[in-house]
Amino acid sequence: MSSEIIEREDGSLVLPSSADPAVAMYQAVGFRRFSVGLDVGRYTDPSALCIIKAESKPYFTGRGFEQKLTQPQYSIVYTETVKNLDYTDLVDMVVARLRKLKHWNLLCDASGMGGPVVSLFHQASVRCTGVTITAGSTITRDGSKVTCSKNLLLENLATQIENGSCVIAHDLPGRDQLLQEIAAFELTFTSAGNPVLQGGGKGHHSDTAIAAALALLGETHLAPRQMEVRKLQGFW
Fold first, then answer.
1. In sequence order, which residues have a C-beta less than 8 Å from that of residue 104 and are 6 or more positions away?
2. What is the pTM for the complete model shown?
3. Which H or E element spans position 8?
4. Which of 20, 141, 170, 204 could form a disulfide with 200 if both were Cys (CB 3.0 to 4.6 A apart)?
5. Residue 174 included in any domain
6. What residues make up the domain containing 192?
7. What total of structural domains would you count in the chain?
8. Would you list the DSSP string of 24-82?
9. Residues near 89 by beta carbon (within 8 Å), at least 6 away in sequence
10. What phi-psi label fits residue 125: left (phi over 0), alpha (psi between -120 and 50 degrees) or beta?
11. For residue 43, is it left (φ>0), alpha (ψ between -120 and 50) or beta?
């Protein structure tokens, strides 16, 4: 039986069933989609965009028709930084990039100056999750609004890269710069003694790393999850 993966219009991935109901019964449905993170520049800092491709593929286990899914794999496939764009031009630029993707989710830093940018996306009828970055170590969600601690945001990125779940495309322009940004984060403490992750000091930008962390958060913490309910028969 062919193991060539079929990509459906909605971005789901399936193995061909050849109209065999026995195969369909064991079908595992994977996905291929893109998560887009936008860090809005403040003052002289540039704005940064990062696109992550997320995939989980079905495969035959070798035990009859049984299928399983590979662990989700996240690949940073595109980054871009821009300076001195007004909010309207920034939104237009991001929308132009989104039009080149089939299935995507957009997450934008809604802290400070990012708030008006999120509003512009909504006014343009562009699906956008605004993420307000705070202190602490928690994440909460209310519809399209998310509050996430900077510690959790950056630790999630560092952990996923360290364990190999998230990789940076080897031919990505700016790959070394992104790795330097991630490596430059250091643990400091507030006046209250609370630990917090900060960028690598004066002269070090962390815009692309924040955009990558936002995009990854969209997959690891905010992406929809599929739940299957099956009925067991013949058991007492």
1. 33, 34, 35, 36, 98
2. 0.85
3. none
4. 204
5. yes
6. 6-220
7. 1
8. HHT---EEEEEEEEEEPP-TTSPEEEEEEEEEE-EEE-SSTT-EEEPPPEEEEEEEEEE
9. none
10. left
11. left
DSSP 144: T
> Tokens representing 112?
């400070």
pLDDT of residue 45: 83
Whether 203 is in a domain gets the answer yes
Q: State residue 182's pLDDT score.
A: 86
List 107's β-bridge partners, or say none.
37, 129
In a domain, 171, yes or no: yes
In a domain, 234, yes or no: no
Each of the 236 residues of the chain gets a pLDDT tens digit; together they read: 456 899 999 999 999 876 666 666 778 999 999 999 999 987 778 999 999 999 999 999 988 888 999 999 999 999 999 998 899 999 999 999 999 999 999 999 999 889 999 999 999 999 999 999 998 889 999 988 999 998 899 999 989 999 999 999 999 998 999 998 888 876 555 555 555 555 554 445 689 999 999 999 999 999 876 544 444 444 44
Considering Cα of 45, then 153, then 131, then 92, what sign does the dihedral take?
Answer: positive
Question: Which domain CATH number covers 86?
Answer: 3.30.420.240
Per the listing, tokens 């989710």 go with 105
Q: What angle do CA 13, 66, 75 make, to 5 degrees?
A: 35
